[in-house]
Amino acid sequence: MGRPVFLGKSYINWCEKCNVPLIGDSCAVHGKEGVFRLNITPPGDLRFAFEKDIEFIRSAFMEHYGVDIGEILEGKIVLLNKLPSEDDAYEIIFDGYVFGYIKYDPLELKWHAGLKMEGAIALWKRFGKEMKKWVVVDNGAVEPVKKNANLLPVGIVEAEPSIRVGDEVILVTEEGEVFATGIAKKDYEALMRKERGTGVKPKRQKTVNYREGKKATVEDVLRANSTALEGKVVKSREFMRRVANKYSDLPKAVAFSGGKDSLAVLGLALEEFGTDFTVFFNNTGIEFPETVQYVEELRKELEPKGAKFIVADAGDAFWRALYVFSPPGRDYRWCCKVTKLGPITMAIKENYPKGVLMFVGQRKYESIKRFKQPRVWRNKWVPNEIGASPIFHWRAIEVWLYIFSRKLKYNPLYARGFDRIGCFLCPSASLAEFERLRREKPKLWEKWRKALEYWRRRFDLSEEWVTYGFWRWKKLSKGEKAIVRKLEVNIPEERSWEPVRVQIEETDDGYELTFNTVLNRKRLLEVAPILGKVNVEGDAIKAGQVEFIGGTRTAKAPNEEEAWSAYYLIKRAYECVGCGVCVGKCPENALSIDERSKKIIVDWGSCTHCRECMDVCPLLKIKNPEEGSQL
Does the predicted TM-score (pTM) go above 0.85? Predict the structure, then answer.
C-alpha cells in the first residue's frame, strides 16, 4: 500500500496470481511478479466485506439493475472503501478493480447502486439485456460520446424501459460492447420520443482494468501479506516499547472500546507486555448490548491469565444529562464529556492517582482531525493520562488482517453489517447508520426516537427534524442547510436551550444579575467556595467578590467578569449531571459527586478557589466537537 496521505492519491497493490489485495509492495508468495497498483478514492481506508455486507450489496444492485450479482462475487475477496460523501458511500473492489459503489441518498433516505466501467462490463457480459438500466447507442454516436460529448436521444437505438431521470445507466454499442456509463437526463419515454436536449450525460473514466480473477480466501490474503503485516506489527510493538520506556514511571493500560481498532491494540499489548497492563473499558450507558456482552466475555477470558480490567461506568448519566443539555450534536459533543471523560477521569484518579500511560486505537485515516493529531499526546481533559496510538498509521484492512492472523475474537456486530462500533445514538453517525439501527436494533432505535420526539415537540419543530437527522447539529452545517432548502421544510439554522438564564445589568456600584429561577440557599452553599472565601449572613451568601441572596433571583458582582462567573456557578449548581470531569481535574481533591443528587459538592476545607473546575465543566466549555471523543 502506498504512503498514507489523507487528501492525496490513494492506492492498494494487488497480486494478480493470488487475486488478493496487498498492504505492501510485493506478495509473500510470488514476490513482485504479477503485482499491480489499483488507484482508489482517498483516504483509502479499506476494509473487508463480511457476508452481511455482501448480502446488502446484492440487494442494492438487485433493486437498481434487476439482477443478482451474487455469483459474480462468490468466492472473491471483496473490499469496501469508504468514500467522502453527503452521507455513507463505499467503493466495491474485487478482482483487482473497482466494480462500482453504493451510496446513501440523504434526501430519498435510500441506498443507490452504481457501476464503474469494469462493473458494467462484468454485468453486461453475464446478464446482457436481462439486466436493467442499459442504453444501446447508434454507432455514429459512439465516438463523440467517448470524447466526452453528451448522448442525445437521437443517437439512441434502444433503451431499457425502467430508466428514469437521474438513474445510473450503461451505454452499449450496437455490437454489444460496453463503452461508457452515465446518468440519465430523461426517462425512457422521453428518450424513445427523441426529445431534444441531453439524454444521457456520460461519466469520465480514464482507464479500464477489467479482469477476471480466480477465487481466493482470507487464508490466501493472510499468506500473501504475511511479511508486510509482520513488519507493521514489529514497528508498532517497537513504538509501544519505546513509549513505555519513556514513561516508565507510569503504569501501562489499553483503552478498550469493543471495536476493531482497540482490539488490535489489545492484541499488540498482549504480545509486547504479556498481561502487565490494565484494560480500561468505558461503559457509556449507551453502548450496544452486544458490545457490553462481548467485553464481559473477553474479561472472563483474560483475567484468569493475569490481566486487570477496570470498567469506568457512566450509568444513566447520558439520559439524565439529555434533559439538561438537549440532544447532542456533531458541533455539541457534551455526550463525550459526560459519558466518557468524566467516568474515565475518575476511574484513573481512583486507581492510578499519579497517572497512567494509555494505549488507544486511534488511526489517522478516521478523520482529517485525527490525521493532524500527534501519535503521543497529553489529554487536557484527562490531565493524569498520556495517550499513545500504536496503530496510528494503520488502515482498516491492516487492522483486520492482524485480527484474522491472530484469530482474535471480534465484536459480533461487525458480522451483522455494522461498520462503526460505538454509542448507538452517536450524532456523528450517518443517516445510513441510523437506518441500519432501525432495521437491526429496532428497540434501541425506538428508545432514542422517543427521546428525540420529546425534544422535537419542545422545540416545536417539524417531524423532518428527526426523520432527516437534523438533530445531529446544534447549528446546521452548510450541507444540512442545502437539504433543508431542497425539502422545503422549516428547520431553524440553530437550536438553543439554556435551562438557567440570566440578565446582567450594570449599576452604579457594579453589576446586578437577575436569574430565571429562585436561588436555593442549600444548593448555593454546596458550591459557593469555588468563587472564593464564603461568608454567610442570613440569606446573603458572599462567595469571593460575589453576593447571592438566597430565596431570591438576584446576585451582585463588582465587575462584568465576576458577574459571568456568578452565572456560571449557578448554572453548574443547577444543571450539574455528575459527569465527574471537574472531580478529576481538581488538584486539591475538593470536589465529589453526591450519591443522592448526582451533583457536585465542594469540600470547604480543601477548596483553594483556583477555579480550574470552571475551565473543564461541559456545561460551560463545549467548544471543539472532537474534544473528548478519544480516551
Answer: yes
Write the CA distances from 492 to 332, 334, 471, 495, integer angstroms: 16, 21, 11, 7
What angle do helix axes 442-459 and 431-440 make, rounded to 10 degrees? 130
Q: pLDDT tens, 95-129?
A: 999 999 999 999 999 999 999 999 999 999 999 99
Query: Half-sphere exposure of residue 502, counting CA atoms within 13 Å on the CB side?
Result: 21
Largest CA distance in the chain: 98
How far apart CA 32 and CA 15 sit, in angstroms, is 8
Measured CA distances, 93 to 115, 228, 263, 419, 609 (Å):
11, 21, 25, 16, 60
Query: Cis link prior to 43 (omega < 30° from 0)?
Result: yes
Quote the CA–CA distance of 226 and 401 in Å, as a whole number.
9
Question: Within 10 A of 564 (CB to CB), how many other CB atoms are there?
Answer: 16
Quickly list H helices, 441-587. 442-459, 464-467, 478-487, 521-527, 560-575, 581-585
DSSP state of 131: S
pLDDT tens readout for residues 63-82: 999 999 999 999 999 999 99
Query: Beta strands 546-549 and 89-94: pairing type?
Result: unpaired
Other beta carbons within 10 Å of 385: 25
* DSSP 8-state class, residue 152: P
